[in-house]
Amino acid sequence: MQKDVFHLAWSPDSLPAEEAVRPLLERLYASLSTYSATLLKNNLDRLLHLLWLAVLSALHEQIGKDSEEKQEAFFVRLYDALELLRAFFHAHGRGLDGNTLMGLEYSALERQLRLHKTSTEALIETYHLERLLVQERTELQEYGSLFVRVYFNHDSLCVEVLQARNLIPLDPNGFSDPFVVIEMLPR
Fold it and tell me: Which UniProt keywords apply (predicted)?
């Protein structure tokens, strides 16, 4: 199985995922055909689960090898192959159930492949969208919310304070003299 996963991972970029994963699927199919005739359903399911985890582990090992040499096509092929393998192990509802297939090991590998196959521009956009979501969820801060715009103007970093909301009065008289302190961290 290791040899077939290696073939899948390091086959030429021009080879589609369906072709690159075929030797692995054929080996798995041949093994499982023999076992499905002799094992009870529960034992076959346990064997399927162990094989699934072994495939995920082998794919994860290939991602970790010589990472600086890999191009986007490498990760796209592995991502597509992972989906083909998931469909194979699901077997149109006769194999592993969705919860078993999409466990922690699968989720971690799928996320890693998805991030590696994504363009730099899309990753930056995703990062900014995630930061905006975090900001929206934590809008009710202890002292209020501050909205700023940050940009580079020639060689200078410019920070504009656009708006402050829900500021709480901190003076003993119940009023507030708001001000903003801007720091660059780490110092």
Answer: Exocytosis
